[in-house]
Write a structure and sequence with these properties.
19 helices; 542 residues; Growth Hormone, Chain: A; Rossmann fold; eight-stranded mixed beta sheet; four-stranded antiparallel beta sheet; alpha/beta; 12 strands; 2 domains
Length: 542
């Protein structure tokens, strides 16, 4: 009899350790999944991350405090495992309850309805209050149950926190590397909730089988709600567009949509910004990509297409830029670097990114460029994480690496964001580029908040571009295919025919970005807040 009681006590204590491990895993898994749940609709800016992390820490703080008091008042395993089951159930409810709110938010973001967007954001964050608070109760409650005597308090506490942290490590990597790319964000929530619920129900059944049976309605309810809630696309496509493809990758919510005229667009996350465009016959879209075509022609005239031998593109996306270069320079090798393999697959299937001369490299732009041993006539950077440029692609050290890989007459072309009255990011990157390149040309893309910076290895003037345009107008048919000549001249002519000035004065700011100090996101956060607090929403809506 004594042996049975001892065995039961050992089994109970070991299962308690499993519960602590699972609780830590679920807490971090939900936190990482929360960033993806919100990021798909509201973006992944520092502001979004700060809200997620800040509020989750508040909820955990409340949980630690309440869990300790709860454990002192009801220091029983049955109470502990009931707490776990309820935490699991509430965790599973989060994506299901958030789904209709997020669909409303998606429409609000498309319509620039600030009140609804902010309201949806806050509503979803509030949904995390109960499950995260309950998960925070697990650690202090488990320590109270495991503490046999005061002399072992230190080792018992250390063991519990070690197991919880070990579970957190698993919860940190599993959603990003495995679950979200395979099953999506909502189902990742449900998987973590299911694992925690199983542990809670089994632990409760070991103490009180009837109590466990009374809670079996929870997985049934979650299953029914999941079946009903998780139908249809994660984010509705814009009006008058058809959704062709939707996938959650380790990096983005990727969507391919098509309008009634047969134009296809690559949308990421919150859907603000077109990252690639495709049409079976139209090749020029009056957007940023055409400016990458014209950049080499800032060199001294006559700069002819036969001098273009190889280009690299950081931020390949769905291949619009590569497709345009392939039309103009059919046999020229191109190295395209894209960090998200899901975007590459979508580009190949839906956006015609199947050009033979294109060498697609999946990985981080700076790291992969450092591994390439070619000389380039142009290196283009279009690596937006709207509205951000990754900071490590804005520093003096990075631009020195780019310069080392450019031919003597090579150019660096970079797409940078701004607002109508705030050019701090453009001017900061300009200031940094001038540490490496002798001349920077600044081009504002008509009808957008994008500015193209062209940095040339040789001293150049904007008059060179105009002279090369006239030269190609006279000799382009002898140097290019008819389709290639038309596309290149269309891009060059946009500089002269736009309703507003395209080539604008180059202004360097006071901030210089380095690998040690590159406050890119701080500048962009400030720009966005200032813009939205002004009349920005009304301008966007119009």
């Amino acid at each position: 009899m004594k042996d049975n009681a001892q065995f039961r006590s050992q089994l109970q204590n070991r299962f308690l350790l499993l519960a602590v491990f699972t609780g830590g895993m679920t807490t971090l898994g939900i936190e990482l999944s929360a960033s993806r749940l919100l990021g798909s609709f509201f973006g992944t800016s520092n502001i979004v991350w700060a809200n997620i992390i800040g509020l989750i820490l508040i909820y955990l703080t409340a949980g630690y405090y309440l869990g300790g008091r709860w454990a002192d008042r009801s220091p029983y395993f049955t109470t502990f495992y009931r707490l776990i089951v309820w935490a699991a159930f509430c965790s599973g409810l989060v994506p299901l309850a958030a789904h209709p709110i997020l669909k409303t938010a998606a429409t609000a973001v498309q319509d620039f309805d600030a009140a609804v967007t902010v309201g949806s954001f806050v509503s979803v964050l509030v949904l995390f209050s109960v499950p995260i608070t309950l998960l925070g109760c697990i650690s202090p409650f488990s320590i109270r149950l495991a503490l046999a005597n005061v002399e072992e308090a230190g080792s018992t506490t250390g063991r519990m926190y070690a197991l919880s942290t070990l579970g957190s490590i698993i919860g940190n990597f599993t959603p990003v590397l495995i679950l979200i790319p395979q099953v999506g964000t909502a189902r990742t929530f449900l998987i973590f909730a299911a694992v925690l619920m199983v542990v809670g129900l089994v632990g409760l059944a070991m103490q009180d089988r009837k109590a466990a049976l009374k809670l079996l309605w929870m997985p049934v309810v979650l299953t029914i709600l999941a079946t009903l809630a998780l139908r249809g696309p994660l984010r509705p496509p814009p009006s008058n567009m058809t959704l062709l493809h939707e996938e959650e990758t380790a990096y983005n919510l990727v969507q391919i949509v098509e309008d009634e005229d047969g134009y296809r667009y690559l949308l990421l996350n919150e859907g603000q910004g077109i990252h690639s465009q495709w049409h079976p016959t139209d090749l020029f879209y009056d957007r940023t990509w055409g400016f990458f075509l014209i950049a080499p022609y800032f060199n001294a005239p006559p700069y002819t297409p036969d001098r273009m031998e190889r280009v690299a593109m950081i931020g390949l996306a769905g291949g619009t830029m590569a497709r345009q270069h392939h039309v103009v320079y059919p046999d020229m090798p191109m190295d395209g670097i894209e960090i998200d393999p899901g975007i590459v697959d979508a580009g190949r299937e839906y956006l015609g990114m199947t050009m033979d001369p294109l060498n697609v490299i999946v990985g981080d732009g700076r790291f992969e460029l450092s591994r390439l041993d070619y000389e380039y006539n142009m290196i283009g950077i279009d690596a937006y994480r709207v509205p951000y440029v990754p900071w490590h692609l804005t520093t003096v050290e990075f631009f020195e690496e780019v310069s080392d890989r450019l031919a003597d007459d090579g150019v660096l072309v970079m797409n940078v964001g701004r607002t109508p009255d705030d050019r701090r990011l453009v001017e900061g990157i300009t200031r940094t580029l001038l540490d490496v390149f002798p001349t920077i040309h600044t081009l504002d893309v008509p009808g957008s908040y994008n500015t193209i910076l062209v940095a040339t290895k040789q001293p150049t003037t904007s008059d060179n571009l105009l002279a090369n345009t006239e030269y190609l107008r006279l000799h382009g048919d002898d140097l290019l295919t008819p389709e290639g000549a038309d596309l290149l001249l269309e891009a060059l002519d946009l500089v002269q025919t736009a309703d507003e000035p395209v080539i604008v004065p180059t202004v360097a700011g006071d901030v210089r970005f380095t690998d040690d100090h590159a406050p890119v996101e701080m500048i962009v956060d400030s720009m966005v807040i200032d813009y939205l607090l002004g009349d920005g929403i009304n301008e966007l809506a119009n």
